[in-house]
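Re: your question from the hallway

Yes, I did run it. Sequences:
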Amino acid sequence: MISRREFMGLLAVLAALPACETMGQIGAAGAQVAASAGMISQDQADEIGSGAKQAAASFEDFTPEQEYYIGRSVGAIILQKYKPYANQAANAYVNTLGQTLAAASDYPQTYRGYHFLLLDSEDINALAAPGGLIFVTRGMVNCCANEDELSAVLAHEVGHVSRKHGLQAIQTSRITSALTTLGLAGAKAMGGEELAALTETFEDSLKDITSTLINNGYSRASELEADESAVIVMKRVGYQRAALVAMLENMETRLTPGGADFAKTHPDPKDRIAELQRVIGMTAMGRSPKPRTARFEAFRKEMA
Amino acid sequence: MQQLIDLARAGAPSLGSGASSAMAGAASVQVQQGQVRATPSFLGKIVANLKYGDKVQVLQTQEPWAKVSAPGGVGGWMHLSALTEKDVQLKAGSAEAKTSATSDELALAGKGFNAQVEKEYQQKNKVDFTWIDRMVDDTVTPEEMQAFLLAGDVTPEGGAL
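Structure:
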């Protein structure tokens, strides 16, 4: 049995190693050194070796179940910043629309599915946590003139989930740490040491994601990917793809330069429009059928 | 224009851990509720729901769908994102899990970031999960989706409902 200090020290050494193709060999070698120094047993060393081999991979190593647990906590942190808009009818509408769009995405079956919640804020913001928990502010809803435009907002967020942009924000060193801890635990239930170490890694991973979501924003390339995913899903379900362009035009007029919302975390709507038009052309928005307009207006009343 | 969209589709990341277009033979359900549909379509009628860790036989794939059969006469189409080629073991203490826990072929359910880690994190940081728990319980059924599209005069690709 190794002491907590030795255990954390070993984790720090392994986690500090750079992620590269030789990661598996270095991790395995480090573990063998630790074994020969009597810090850990040979069995544990072998388990770390194989764990480190996996560590050479990436965010793709998270199972959907782990993605779900990461997403739950990211969602809980978002809800420390924003209050829910607790209107049942409005949230039911957004969930029906959003979950339908998600079903048509390239990643429809997450561990526990997609779920949407409106936030009571005038900020123009929408945030997607890994695994499919998606949050949309009233300010963002106000950028949407009709159901097709709201579908564009929701489909863009579904795009971030299906492309796993949140998980990609996690630094590789965290994944290495997690896998190393799990290698030590092997197939047995986690002990107190492992649980404490894993929880620390968990917290660091959450910080990576939330600082990206709330402060820095995804890369321009990721935003364009989410826009591309959005128009694909909208076409599959039957919404007008031009609605994404129309929504961005509305947003452009409403965003406050220097604001702490989409203005800070997203590329200029004008740039997104230009990129989108390369994909979908210069299609104009057609009229919305009457029943679709009527239910969207009813939703807007609930949001007022 | 269509070419660009096809390109974007081709560039999508892999569908869940272990899923691939070449999936064949045995596979495990890697989500809590693996939907089995009558037809390979997002609006296809759900004929059965399989549980996390359930085993299926993949008979053929038609990207992104797999035609599967499962014990109990269950058969139909599952989206590849619901499946993994890894053998999902639900019990960490089982003999099989113990001998091959670190192999690439096995995934231990509940290993890694799990409810235990969340509880530890929650207690340490006083995080409130009330609304998150409410959110994950709200699931829209395929029938409700169909009715919603129909009522809004929304016609999915491939024709009317």
